[in-house]
């Protein structure tokens, strides 16, 4: 490989990335899904046995011949979504009007709204367990005494946007009504409530290996057609609604997601650990070329603030998500945020990189003399283009390290002198190389521009 090229995990130029079926099968660890995960592992084992015979001759079920080439042209998500989602902090427990309004107030009082976090998204468990007599979704009256619209209106009055969660299958992962067969009706309901963002999950969808399991572990699970149906329903609902696809990277969604949604989860659920976020980021490096204005790889909601990461790791978590152009959805109790976490989340220069109008995601580059990336393992050297320069990320993925590179080795740069500024330390400089001594799992993010 020549210097100045992006590197894939095999050490080839990046367009040689091999889409792996197993992005992170073992890290589907949200509290709500732990049980489902154990169940689903049985399907996984069955799949392994079945796939050898089925792989070549698999026939898609009928109904899949919708226009796959159609692009999502809803004008939304030109940059990755920034906001909040309640799921990573207690699962079902905070899907209530009270909790939503508390979050809205905190987004404002903590300065997060001003920093760009505009979406306030409520995840699973907001609905009543049954639809009403006309088949409409209804909010659980004990959680939303005045209904969803009253809360969405308040949230809008506060200058924020309001998001909700649902599912492409017959039930959500936590057992609330899914939209399968009700897509048009549900999209209209969402529009009438003033919903701005819809996360569409994939539990209880038909599986190629049979049945409608909580999660289908078959890489050929048939999600496309259901996401196309919801895309069309939302497009006809009469309100711009950002379409956030959540089918955990099935069917190599990163290769087709942009025609369907504004973002697509590319992994199973993030756990509150360094190894989980490192694994997700490592896989995202191989999907960078699929991110563009209107559609982004979604690396999942943040775990910062939830106690499983130290400050260095929190920096790397948000830093990696930002340069990978992932949506950044805070997933912790905002009333208990440490100042250090808040500072990371509000880092202006980092958010500007994530929100850069070019919308191109960073990926690995290999400085001369450094070992090649290894598939599935987080590599220290990242770079990507910006509308007005280049971003370089350095992450001490394997423990404390001095990470160094020459600008000439960075794609988009070259020999000569470059100006750089580092977003976390605020340090700046001009030169031909950088060397940074980092504590274990810490990260530095450099914006690099031509020296004048
Ligand atoms: C999972 C999803 C999580 C969360 C959860 C709710 O499928 O990946 O982000 O939404 O369902 O039940």
UniProtKB/TrEMBL annotation:
GO terms for biological process: carbohydrate metabolic process. Residues 380-448 form the Alpha galactosidase C-terminal domain. Keywords: Disulfide bond, Glycosidase, Hydrolase, Signal. It comes from Massariosphaeria phaeospora. It catalyses: Hydrolysis of terminal, non-reducing alpha-D-galactose residues in alpha-D-galactosides, including galactose oligosaccharides, galactomannans and galactolipids. This is Alpha-galactosidase. Its EC number is 3.2.1.22. PANTHER family: ALPHA-GALACTOSIDASE MEL1, ALPHA-GALACTOSIDASE/ALPHA-N-ACETYLGALACTOSAMINIDASE. InterPro entries: Aldolase_TIM, GH, Glyco_hydro_27, Glyco_hydro_27/36_CS, Glyco_hydro_b, Melibiase_C. Pfam families: Melibiase_2 (PF16499), Melibiase_C (PF17801). Belongs to the glycosyl hydrolase 27 family. GO terms for molecular function: alpha-galactosidase activity. Hydrolyzes a variety of simple alpha-D-galactoside as well as more complex molecules such as oligosaccharides and polysaccharides. The lineage of its organism: Eukaryota, Fungi, Dikarya, Ascomycota, Pezizomycotina.
